[in-house]
Amino acid sequence: MSQRGIHRVSTEVEVLELHGADDSSTIEYSRDRIPNDQEMPPYTLTGFKRIVFLVLYAFIVSSSIGGLLYTFYVNPLFGLMILPVCYVFNNLLFLVNHSRLHASFIELPEAEMSVICHHAFIHHYRNTRVFHETWLETRMSYFMDARDVFDRASRGFLVVIPVLSVLLYQINPLLGIGFFSSQYLAELLQSTVHEWYHNPVRNRKTFYTFPMYWTFVFLEKIGIASTSYHMKHHRHQLPTLDEVEVWLDLYVPFGEIPVSRYWKKALSRYVPGQRRITEYISRVGLFYAYLLFFLINPAIYVLIYFKFFR
Q1: pLDDT band per the 50, 70, 90 thresholds, residue 4
Q2: Measured between alpha carbons, how far is residue 111 from residues 105, 115, 237, 269 in Å?
Q3: Cα 16 to the center of its chain, rounded Å
Q4: Which range of residues forms the domain containing residue 141?
Q5: Domain count, the chain
Q6: Distance CA 201, CA 197 (A)
Q7: CA angle at residue 222 from 221 to 227, to 5 degrees?
Q8: Which of 155, 156, 122, 119 lies closest to 136, judged by CA?
Q9: Per-residue pLDDT tens for 18-61?
Q10: CA angle 128, 249, 253 (to 5 degrees)
Q11: Packing angle between helix 210-222 and helix 173-198, nearest 10 degrees?
Q12: In angstroms, how far is the first alpha carbon of the chain from the final one?
């Protein structure tokens, strides 16, 4: 790069660092300075690996539903009390992960994106139908990344939650099974609802199983899910990431307020060609995941059990 080009980049970086928080609305976010970036197709599972992931997905669905049915059979009131807890904590975790995806859209080359991140990027800016066109790869990426089976999602849902469930099971089987099944069922719901929003209405009834289809119809009727409201999330374009709104895919009262302020703070760290936003949100995400989601979340289950059912 010429001296003039170096000076220009340095000047722009200084302006961004000094005034990013105050002037974020004037910044145009771009992928132009991401090194080694090139367009890639969505990830697809084939052959034996696809069979393995189909089996794993079937196991996750059956164990989650079976465990929750057991919980309600043994103690319906306990089941009703833990569902709001897992719902709120899961949506808070989704907020952190969702904002990290959007940060990656302007900071990571496509080759370094996880499956869910890359599919979300394609979904936003190239092909909104990619989620249901690659339904298995996308849904499973909430639990295990097909490109990297030891990613953060795998560590959380395939290691930490099962270990916590086993520990809670030692206190009482109802507690362990209730925790495991509710956490997984909440993530199954989260992994499918966004796909539902962008799956054409005429296609839904034949695409989804009978129970799944009517579950989402019911959630839309009572306002927990909303296809029309979700479309507000797609009003922005890549250069106007500061205009992103409607971060939640499922309704949580007042849930949008903290993430909107937190996103503006994260964007103030933007420097073209660097990964400051992604790194910042990743640190916040780790703090939330291990302190709130993996510590306070199961502690509330234990508190409910001992206070009302011991």
Answers
A1: very low
A2: 12, 10, 21, 23
A3: 28
A4: 3-308
A5: 1
A6: 9
A7: 55
A8: 119
A9: 344 444 455 778 898 899 899 999 999 999 999 999 999 999 99
A10: 155
A11: 80
A12: 70
